[in-house]
Write a structure and sequence with these properties.
By secondary structure, the chain is α+β, with helices and mostly antiparallel strands. It is 38% helix and 20% strand. The chain contains six helices and six strands. The protein starts with a helix and ends with a helix. 12% of the residues are buried.
Length: 184
């Protein structure tokens, strides 16, 4: 009986995961998601974004398996890149990763895993978008994590994490921190 219950729970999670991917992958839902969460797309209407998604020249689903020799394979739920027209007449390419996470307490920090996924996507751009002579060619990555089984208290919440300069430290204070004694 334990096995039947465990298999039912596992099958339920797999079905939930597949249904969530189908909903988020729907063109209109994906356009709404991009409109709401991708800063470079806020000036575009949902209809304009849907047109971009339908255009194979400006939107592509990418291979969701990322293998780095000696480091293993990561399988993304959904990964795409999109070229978004900007108000100044240029296009800005962004990468979008969407993850459906059913287990909100997997035994490790989901934030750390999210950062690792973003770093994987950035790493795959090496040699094509940027190299050791041009790091500015690196394209922005957005990683959205949807948790369909979040607690009632967290239901509907959006947590935002980003890499951002925090501030500036005075030379005097920095020197004090960087003394040999503190570094050892």
């Amino acid at each position: 009986m334990e096995t039947v219950i465990q298999n039912t729970i596992t099958n339920h999670k797999i079905m939930l995961d597949q249904h969530c991917k189908a909903i988020v992958g729907n063109q209109e839902m994906l356009a709404r998601t991009i409109h709401e969460f991708v800063r470079e797309a806020r000036h575009l209407s949902v209809k304009e974004i849907m047109k971009i998604i339908k255009d194979e020249q400006r939107f592509r689903w990418l291979n969701n398996e990322n293998m780095i020799p000696n480091y293993g394979t990561v399988k993304f739920d959904m990964l795409c890149c999109v070229d978004l027209p900007q108000l100044n007449g240029t296009n800005k390419r962004i990468y979008l990763n969407v993850e459906i996470q059913n287990n909100i307490h997997p035994g490790y920090s989901l934030v750390t895993r999210g950062i690792a996924y973003v770093l994987r996507i950035l790493t795959t751009q090496w040699g094509r978008k940027y190299d050791d002579k041009n790091y500015d060619g690196m394209k922005k990555v957005y990683s959205l994590w949807i948790m369909p089984q979040a607690t009632k208290r967290k239901d509907g919440d959006v947590d935002v994490y980003k890499v951002k300069k925090k501030g500036r430290m005075e030379k005097k204070k920095a020197k004090k921190i960087m003394t040999r004694k503190n570094l050892l």
